[in-house]
Amino acid sequence: MIGKNKQSGQMNFLFQTLKDQLNPQHPLYQLSAKIDWKAVDSDFAEYYTNFGRPAKPVRLMVSLLILRQLYNLSDESVVERWVENPYFQYFSGETHFQWSIPCDPSDLVHFRHRVGKEGIEKIFRLSVQLQGKDAQQKSVSLDTTVQEKILPSQLT
């Protein structure tokens, strides 16, 4: 017997938020809730003025730098993947799926220059706090064993 598709009526995704559509068990979904984004905004407010061209939102820029580090991506790659990944977008504070890049990759360079070493250290401290006790251990264990290379002549 051929199975039938389960259709519970037509859903309209245009009016649903990303929060409603995404899996709450996804790590980025959960990580987004652990960060006090209002505190991040106020921590970085000192790097901005009240005049001139409006900058990109602090949450967007900080989240892109965190995603860049988490997934070991370049500035260009994190911006490209942001468009494809609704979890990246949700983590960055978007409520609805976006179809265009959030910023030019060079904006990340400008943001790093704007916040300087002190701002990057704030982001680093934030990521350490998110790791909890695991990131605050006093010692680190390294496995230094090395397996010797087997030469082809030794295989016979």
Distance between the termini: 57 Å
Which structural class should the secondary elements be placed in?
Answer: mainly alpha
Dominant shape: globular
Sheet with most strands: none
Order of helices and strands: HHHHHHH
Rounded mean pLDDT score: 84
Secondary structure: number of strands: 0
The proportion of strand residues reads under 5%
Supply the number of helical segments: 7
- Helix content range of the residues, please? 40-55%
| Spatial extent as radius of gyration | 22 Å
Low-confidence stretches: none
Domain Transposase InsH N-terminal: 17-114
Pfam family, one: DUF772
Protein name: Transposase
Write the topology of this structure.
Layout lengths: L17 H4 L5 H8 L2 H8 L13 H13 L4 H10 L1 H6 L13 H27 L25
Record keyword descriptors for this entry.
156 residues, mainly alpha, 7 helices, Transposase_InsH_N, Transposase
Question: Any overview of this molecule?
Answer:
- With 156 residues, the protein is mainly α.
- It has a domain at 28-46 and 54-132.
- It has seven helices and no strands.
- The radius of gyration is 22 Å and the shape is globular.
Summarize the structure.
This is Transposase. This protein is mainly α and 156 residues long.
